[in-house]
Design brief:
The chain is of the alpha/beta class. It contains twelve helices and eleven strands. Helices cover about 40% and strands about 20% of the residues.
């Protein structure tokens, strides 16, 4: 009787929710996409493909949601409700210009209309020596107005300290956490970049410990949000121990790199270092791929069987 109940439960159980990457050449190899609720680290050298993966995924998902590309089909596959980019140091216009130059117009248009941005640069630079005008002219004007108000209050005998901000900066991680709590549920979020965020916490062991706690909390919360959170980290900028500890906080680690294939020729490669709920469930999934980049497809998988050592 108990065995019959187990069989019925297995037959009636819903398939796990899968959110496509939008990169069809990859989705077809990994069962349609990545498990919903995953925190994914895009790790790589500059130009090796981690940033290109993020751009391609967001462009293709926007095109699918706009009806420009056919939607993926399969058990448990769902599209995200929204697509978000969170930037810490880079201007939205700068990132959008790069994507506009990297993709054909018919792919860029849905991205421009459907992908949403949030800029946390004010919190990132709030306690730095960077001039306010470098971050935002509007922010600089607000601060000047605030200082003039404080000066007027001081002259009027109100007793406020001249030039002291009326609000204390929230901190970058706190602002990021607030945003994710409000917007990550059921959505795909690209955080650009973890490299920038890690720099704020890399100078002391106490700060590194605080940073790792934040990442582990993010990984845990992502399970409840049921979307995907991607973030990119440039390799060889932090010590190996910190880089490995950051990787240990993610559900999936996609490592991008360059491989020498001749005296002067190199090619990009993608290696799945780990992926909870994906590699363990699908033993047939290849873990290493050759990748290429074009304006019509963005990043795509090239002949995975051509890389030495791959086995199905």
């Amino acid at each position: 009787m108990a065995r019959d109940k187990i069989k019925v439960d297995k037959m009636t159980a819903k398939p796990p929710r899968i959110i496509p990457t939008g990169i069809s050449s990859l989705d077809g190899l990994v069962g349609g996409g990545f498990p919903a609720g995953s925190f994914v680290l895009l790790l790589g050298e500059i130009g090796s493909g981690n940033m290109e993966f993020a751009m391609t995924s967001s462009v293709m998902l926007a095109a699918i949601k706009a009806g420009r590309l056919p939607p993926p089909t399969g058990p448990g596959i769902v599209l995200p409700k929204e697509i978000w980019w969170v930037t810490l140091t880079r201007l939205q216009s700068d990132l959008m210009n790069e994507i506009a130059l990297s993709f054909d117009r018919d792919l860029y248009e849905p991205f421009e209309k459907r992908v949403k941005f949030v800029d946390l640069s004010k919190d990132y630079f709030a306690t730095s020596s960077v001039p306010l005008e470098w971050v935002s002219e509007g922010w600089a004007a607000e601060k000047r107005k605030e200082m003039l108000t404080s000066l007027g209050d001081a002259l009027a005998g109100v007793g406020k300290a001249v030039g002291r901000p009326t609000t204390k900066p929230k901190g970058c991680c706190k602002s990021l956490a607030d945003f994710l709590l409000a917007h990550a549920r059921g959505n795909v979020v690209f955080l650009h970049s973890l490299t920038d965020l890690a720099r704020l916490y890399s100078d002391t062991e106490a700060k590194q410990y605080e940073f790792m706690l934040f990442l582990r909390g993010l990984q845990r919360a992502a399970k409840n949000w049921g979307g995907l959170v991607y973030t990119d980290l440039t390799t060889n900028l932090f010590d190996k121990h910190m880089e490995e500890e950051i990787a240990s906080c993610a559900d999936g680690v996609l490592a991008f790199g360059w491989e020498q294939v001749g005296p002067i020729q190199r090619r990009r490669s993608l290696h799945f270092r780990k992926f909870q709920g994906l590699l363990s469930a699908r033993q047939d999934v290849l873990t290493r791929f050759e990748v290429n980049i074009t304006s019509s497809t963005g990043l795509y998988i090239v002949r995975p069987e051509a890389i030495e050592g791959l086995r199905r």
